[in-house]
Amino acid sequence: MANIMPAGLTRQFVAAGDQVTFMGTFFRNIFRGGFEWNEFLRQCFIIGYKSLSLVGITGFILGFVLTLQSEPTMKEFGAESYVPSMVAISVIREIGPVIIALICAGKIASSIGAELGSMKVSEQIDAMEVSGANPIQYLVVTRIIACIIMIPLLTLMADALALMGGFMASNISNDMTLTLYFNKAFSALVFADLVPAVIKTIFFGFAIGFVGCYKGYNSDRGTESVGVAANSAVVSASLWIIVLDAIAVQLTSVFAYS
What is the number of H-type helices and E-type strands within the chain? Predict the structure, then answer.
């Protein structure tokens, strides 16, 4: 019987099946003994500490620019005093988590994909399997869990710096004290605004770590496959972040109004 399914669609289904299998292998190895704590801490340092400057600058500029762009429009309606609240709600609920996750996808997912891809090409992963080591537990589990933990922390830091950037921008044309600014910023926020934002950054971190590890671990042979793995990791992780954010927004709206 002839295959009536297009070849491209067949490859997509095969790739989806491979990802599900890879995810199942990851979850099985989480609960196995001999967790690699040293490698996990090293990955937390690489993913978290070495991303502080990039994430911090991005967050500060985000709040600074958002305030500068919002003030003229709000001033026309006599609502200039609501700018701190608007910036805080926008950054903490939506803009901060998504922008920081996309920045981390470009930096972290590409790095993981290139690193594991080069190890695949140089047959280091095969050597680990032959020697009796567990490459999934050592290379994959540590990196994904480090992303799950560090991405929310980086996002919270970026949110705080975004509010500081908004404060700096507000004082270009106005004279507002730090206490007054943060009182206005937090007056419209409730604890329920922070919880969904933090929860979805956990899923963003999982997507970034998982896609980077999958693309690198399953890269083809050849030196050009390292660049392909890094590039496809960024593209796929960014797409998953957008999809997960859309799902999170819908779920938040359903629970908020139910």
Answer: 12, 0
HSE of 231 in the Cβ direction (CA atoms, 13 Å)? 5
DSSP-based helix, strand, coil % in the chain, nearest 5: 85, 0, 15
18 lies in some domain: no
Residue 112's identity, in one-letter code, is: I
The pTM of the full predicted model, rounded to 2 decimals, is 0.90
CA distance 248 to 253: 9
Nearest to 126 by CA among 37, 217, 204, 197: 217
Do the domain assignments include residue 24?
no
What is the extent of the structural domain holding 89?
A: 36-257
Helix (H) or strand (E) holding 150: helix 142-173
pLDDT digits (tens, 9 = 90+) for 9-28: 777 778 788 888 989 989 99
Is 3 domain-assigned?
Answer: no
CB 145 within 8 A of CB 205: no
Say how far apart CA 206 and CA 225 lie, in whole Å: 23
Contacts by 24-33 with C-beta closer than 8 Å and gap 24+? 25/136, 25/140, 26/136, 26/140, 26/141, 26/144, 26/210, 26/213, 29/134, 29/136, 29/137, 29/140, 29/141, 30/141, 30/145, 32/134, 32/137
Best CA proximity match to 166, nearest among 158, 78, 196, 188: 158
Query: For 169-195, how does the pLDDT look when each residue is reduced to its tens digit (9 = 90+)?
Result: 988 877 788 888 889 888 888 887 888
Tokens of 92: 């903490």
